[in-house]
Amino acid sequence: MVRFKTSSVYDGFCMKGIPKTHPRYQSLMTRERIAEAMKRGLVHETGLIAHGRGEAFDYLLGEVTIPPADSALKTAAAVLVRARHPVISVNGNVAALAAEECVALSLAVPAGLEVNLFHRTPERVMKVADELRHAGAKDVFGVKADAVIPGLAHDRAFCSKDGIFSADVVLVPLEDGDRCEALRRMGKTVIAIDLNPLSRTSRMASITIVDNVVRALPRLRYWVDVHRQAKKDDVDKLVIQWDNEENLREVVRFLCKRLNALF
User: Fold this and answer.
1) Are 156 and 117 in contact (CB under 8 A)?
2) Of 1, 34, 33, which Cα lies nearest the Cα of 14?
3) What is the dihedral sign for C-alpha 86, 228, 79, 59?
4) What separation in angstroms does the CA of 2 have from each of 65, 212, 233?
5) DSSP for 64-84?
6) Which residues contact 73 (CB under 8 A, 6 or more apart)?
7) pLDDT digits 0-9 by tens, 20-75
8) pLDDT tens across 61-114, in order?
9) What is the pairing mode between strands 189-193 and 207-209?
10) Rounded CA gap, 177 and 174, in Å?
């Protein structure tokens, strides 16, 4: 289980309400981070619903990174290190849960960071950008959107010309299916992190990582570091042999087998 660093705010909550010996300590602390971020205006209220839906699927996975997810992480890292201009798309939930991990991954690849929000307001855009800067990011795309993703209605179409618009690879944790599909139509390789293997995002992405973002991002960085030291042919082979549909089938088979074994 990937463990994230907690700030004094969350340590204080732990002392008052959630003991570190609780069997689901990490999951409960993640809930608190999302709730606190909503109070700060970083996360939209609908982000709580999205988080709860994801948490339900994480229960089914056993709250661990399963083998098909690690295969996807390994291939996604290979795509990132081969990319010409990779960009990591960050929304409120991702910034609240894994800002430091996003920045660390962006430096390791290296890749750009861009704010993209479904419920977009100038205030929330700045809050997400500031969260990334506080975590160590120097340059953040998306604050001043100067391009539009073709064929996509709604504010989430706004993007940066030098960021997502010109990227060849886009990592989109906690994404919505419409934008994932629109990015694919633009010819981009889209890497999604989504706990729901049945979602439109999971089925539309080039590579789908069915895992919790707080576990997936550190593991993705690990594989990036590994591929940096690997032979180019070995890295290329991972990408060439990838079959996203088959990997999603493996995830579903894992879920079915695990559920049948529980009772």
Assistant:
1) yes
2) 33
3) negative
4) 9, 9, 30
5) S--HHHHHHHHHHHHHHHH-S
6) 65, 209, 211, 216, 219, 220, 223
7) 888 788 888 888 899 998 999 899 888 888 988 999 999 999 999 999 999 999 99
8) 999 999 999 999 999 999 999 999 999 999 999 999 999 999 999 999 999 999
9) parallel
10) 10
Answer yes or no: are the C-beta atoms of 113 and 137 closer than 8 Å.
yes
Q: Note the pLDDT tens digit of each residue in 200-212.
A: 999 999 999 999 9
DSSP label of 227: H
pLDDT tens for 86-101 read 999 999 999 999 999 9
Angle, CA of 54, 58 and 61, to the nearest 5°: 145
Helix axes 25-39, 92-108, angle to 10 degrees: 110
- Please give the structure tokens belonging to residue 51: 């988080």
**Nearest residue to 142 (alpha-carbon basis) of 160, 155, 130:** 160
Q: Is the per-residue pLDDT at 1 higher than 70?
A: no
Using DSSP, state whether 253 is helix, strand or coil. helix
Under 8 Å between Cβ of 214 and 30: yes
CA dist., res. 50 & res. 174, Å (int):
9
* Structural domains for the chain: 8-61 (no CATH), 67-255 (3.40.50.12640)
203 to each of 190, 230, 246, how far by Cα in Å? Answer: 11, 29, 11
* Mean pLDDT rounded to a whole number for the chain: 91
Confidence band for 247, pLDDT divided at 50, 70 and 90: very high
DSSP summary character for residue 188: -
User: Is the CB of residue 180 less than 8 Å from the CB of residue 199?
Assistant: no
